[in-house]
Design brief:
The protein has about 180 residues and is an alpha+beta fold. It contains 3 helices and 9 strands. It folds into 2 domains: about 100 residues, no CATH class; about 70 residues. The chain is elongated.
Length: about 180
């Protein structure tokens, strides 16, 4: 499954039911519409175009940047950009989607980290979180049934990062 397919499926399976079944006053926890104002839109927001009539690759995407007369959208799973003029947007709450929003090497590193936790740590040690800054990845661990951070490891990552290399770092900290 491509990044785009996975992210769109996450939106369908997590956001749509939330909007359908949440009380009316809680629906903005999932999607917030900016019909008449783009002043609250910001780079990195996951949005869908409200008034586009034709389905296209940029209908759901990430805001790359805002210009004086348009909003520049980045296609999910690529670096292709599209300028949207005279369009209104709704912002999708990314917190409701979790790590399924990661793309490319970051998503693959996340998947490898989950496998490393399963293969290289003790039974009670569980994945807590992952974050990326530049070419560095930070993983946090927790004890089963608790949410306090047990330990953290930080390492440079790229497409060649392996489950075993992540596992060795986890094993060193998981005493």
């Amino acid at each position: 499954m491509s990044d785009k397919e996975r992210i769109l499926m996450a939106i369908i399976t997590r956001i749509i039911p939330g909007v359908l079944y949440a009380p009316f006053e809680e629906r903005e926890e999932y999607i917030k519409s900016y019909m008449f104002s783009r002043s609250e839109l910001k780079p990195g927001d996951l949005v869908f175009a409200n008034t586009s009539l034709k389905v296209n690759d940029f209908l759901v995407g990430f805001i790359d940047h805002l210009e004086k007369d348009c909003v520049v959208i980045r296609e999910i799973g690529s670096n292709r950009l599209c300028n949207y003029y005279n369009e209104s947007f709704s912002v999708i709450n990314k917190e409701k989607l979790g790590y399924e929003l990661l793309e490319g090497v970051q998503y693959k590193t996340y998947q490898k980290a989950l496998k490393a936790f399963g293969n290289y740590t003790q039974y009670w040690t569980r994945f807590k979180s992952i974050s990326f800054e530049g070419n560095m990845c930070s993983l946090q661990a927790r004890k089963a049934f608790k949410n306090d951070t047990l330990f953290e490891v930080t390492f440079p990552y790229n497409s060649k990062t392996t489950i075993a290399s992540i596992g060795r770092l986890l094993k060193e900290k998981d005493l």
